[in-house]
Structure prediction request, 247 residues.
Amino acid sequence: MSQLLSLRHYHHEQIAHSHEHAQLVFGLSGQLDFEVDGRGCQVSSLSLAVVPPGAHHACASALGSQCLVLDVPMDGWLQQRLGHHADASRRLLDKPGRLQLDPAQGQLVDWLAASPINDEVIAQQGATLLLASLSNAAAAVPSGLPLARIDAYIERHCAHPLQVADLARLCGLSSARFHARFLAETGHTPMDHVRLRRLRLGRELLLGSRLPVGEVAARVGYGSQSAFTAALVREFGVTPRQLRSGA
Prediction:
């Protein structure tokens, strides 16, 4: 991973890749056409794109743009730096798309962009302030659905078939009502969310254990190693072997 905060210039050449860490791309000048997990958006001043860990994303700018990029460290950095804000930050970083900044947040981004962000103290403190500010804004608009409880249920039962009705029962809603609210609040369907959680859990097992690929596939609900491998390639662009080898 590159340094914590960096200034980047984008041009008409398209960049397309994925990486294990989450990333926030704050617009400074110009307009950047951004796509994360198939969802398009435009990043300009007072806005940012959220790239969750492992999300495939592509970007280009026909007339050129400059952005401040925050590469969020993995492991325990969020908890260490943000304390009680960490859970809200994780939820924010897990949802791809575009966010709008308020003027005060925009001033913070502009100040950091004009600062020596290669200085570790400034970078660490600046990144912490940005994430805390974004997490506070997100927490001020509470979700009507218990997303953390839904994710915990998926993780406990990911080896078995899961249906929308199973998740709807957690919220006391009909399947149709739950589907509509989940789509409105998260931007994707419940079953798309289940699929992505399965694959991210599978990726964690591949990286953190020596379990055979077929057993990893079974633990996250795939009926065969080949189906799991194909889904992993579609989502993250790598096979299990490439993921484990770091290729």
The chain has a mean pLDDT of 89. Strands lie at 5-10, 15-17, 23-30, 32-36, 39-43, 47-51, 57-60, 65-71, 97-100.
